[in-house]
Amino acid sequence: MFSSQPNSARPPHEPTRQPGNPPGDPPGNPPGNPPGSGLGSSPPKKNAQSANRLIETCSQLALALGILVRLVQYFSNRSLWFDEVAVALNLQERNYSELLGALSYDQAAPPLFLWIEEFALNTFGNNEFSLRLYPLLAGLLSLFVFYHFTKLFTARWARPIAIFIFSVQSYFIYFSAELKPYSSDVCVGLLLFMAVGSLASLRPSAKRLWGVGALGVVSIWLSFPSILMMAAIEATNLIRLKVWQLRKSDWQALLARRLPLYAAWLISLVGLYVGVVSKTLTETDLSESWANRYPSGWLDLFWMVDAMGQFFYRPLGFLSPADGIAIALFLVGIISLYRTRKWHLAYLSSPFIVTMLASYLHVYPFRDRLILFLVPYGLAILAEGIAVAIRRWQKRPRLVGILGLLLAVSLLVLPLQQTLPQLIQPSRTHFDEMRPAIAYIHQNWQPGDKIFVFRWSQLQFQYYRTRYEFDSDDVFLSGIEDFGLSHLKDNDIERLSKEITELKAGPLKGEKRVWFLMARKNDDAAEAIMQGLDQLSEPLEMTRYPTVVVSLRDLSK
């Protein structure tokens, strides 16, 4: 896939790379065992084969574990939460052509992603399983692509380490079962990394150019960060080819093959921006919500350090203090790769550099789930650092080696501690469980009942009410627009009391059974709201679901 020699014609005096060697390894080096790795002399052939089989077995077991936890999470079938429902309502209310416009509810998603979801909704029904099917398939495919990716960009035990972390980190698992494009961003990014990286020669075949060109054109409409991946890997290709040193004939060959490729990508990008992105930016508030995620200027180096530090927490998924350990071993990985496989490090770091540059240009935020697509390349570097720490545990000074081993093992144990509960009891990770809450209200509904829906529960109620029969005259939606999301603001209880008092004097006067439906509040906020309602009504019953409260109250007194 990645040629070890930039030019398509290999000099006759240069030895051929042995099969199984990662690209960039010197000919004759044992597969996956870079020089200077600290492993010492090559073991006997039989021992080397046995070690390689063990590494492959561990890699496959890690892959199988990743498949299992993603399927368990998917089939646990949690309710669609606020952001997912916002996308689902757009799919429910629009046809294919209308999905090309600015989405409602301050949402944005690539057009092809929306079309795939629209097809799933129309084909398999409007339910959680069909809406999350494509993210699941993208998450599973990402595992297999990453499995092959590690054959090229990790050495020996770094490979199963990278696959294991990729498989069990809860943040990655979660987005494989969410109605959002972040899981497919990872998958598309990996495919582009492998495909565009295969163009590291002056004269790639026309068939390969057509294939990579078509993949790039489609990817731009399927994944917003895909253009960043293409720019990063192709820029690294050109640097590796040392284009500034090319002869005129080589320049002509380069331009003849690559200009049509670049033109196709550019036309696709311009079409996406003019047809979709520009409408989204002008007709939604997304630009304002992203504003605080950008650096204040080109000299804002603190932002860059902070953004990279945050990357290890989210989306890489290491909670404190594991994120600090991950940062330290990530730096070890960078040093190790720089010493042994510089071009590997160049390719792995290029998506970070280009995405960071895009953030300084205020065109793409370098934060949280929006950079989930960078995780595979960060993991490849981190796994190298973990492998180095494990290999050195018996070297002097012994205390430093043992400490490094403990830190490395902790990065493998901690993610598993987060994932095992999800595997045993996936409902423990559920939140905004609005579907069972609404089902409970419907099941216990009596003639004459009314329902009051809090501000941040209304989109989910709007989506799920179609499965049940609630008369519009019986539904009252809170009109407090800026009511606190998770935490309460200073005057939220006062404003809520005023709203309920007005309803008691009007359409809810004398009502003995009014259901209150509330989601997305922390425990303290939920308790404060219930105490506020106690001053205005008599509680009859209360049922709790993950971050959802259902309370039946008598407003007649």
- What's the pLDDT, averaged over the residues? 88
Low-confidence stretches: 3-42
Number of helices: 21
Assign an overall shape.
Answer: globular
Along the chain, the helix and strand elements come as HHHHHHHHHHHHHHHHHHEHEHEHEE
Briefly note the structural class of the backbone: mainly alpha
The share of residues in extended strands comes to 5-15%
Count of individual beta strands: 5
Could you give the distance between the termini? 75 Å
Number of self-contained structural domains = 2
The radius of gyration computed from the alpha-carbon positions, rounded to a whole number of angstroms, is 27 Å
Q: Tell me about the biggest sheet?
A: 5 strands, mixed
Strand order of the largest sheet: 2-1-3-5-4
> Helix fraction?
55-70%
GO cellular component, one term: plasma membrane
Membrane topology: Multi-pass membrane protein
Keywords: Cell membrane, Glycosyltransferase, Membrane, Transferase, Transmembrane, Transmembrane helix
Subcellular location: Cell membrane
Question: What features would you describe in this structure?
Answer:
By secondary structure, the protein is mostly helical. It folds into two domains: about 45-425, no CATH class; about 435-555, Rossmann fold, CATH 3.40.50. It is about 60% helix and about 5% strand. The protein is built from 21 helices and five strands. The protein has helices at about 45-75, 80-95, 110-125, 130, 135-155, 160-170, 170-175, 180-195, 205-220, 225-240, 250-285, 285-290, 300-315, 320-340, 340-360, 375-390, 400-425, 435-445, 460-465, 490-505, 525-535, and strands at about 450-455, 475, 515-520, 540-545, 550-555. A five-stranded mixed sheet has the order 2-1-3-5-4, sandwiched between helices. A hairpin with a 2-residue loop joins strand 4 (about 540-545) and strand 5 (about 550-555). Helix 1 (about 45-75) packs antiparallel against helix 5, helix 14 crosses helix 15 (about 340-360) and helix 14 (about 320-340) crosses helix 16 (about 375-390). The radius of gyration is 27 Å and the shape is globular.
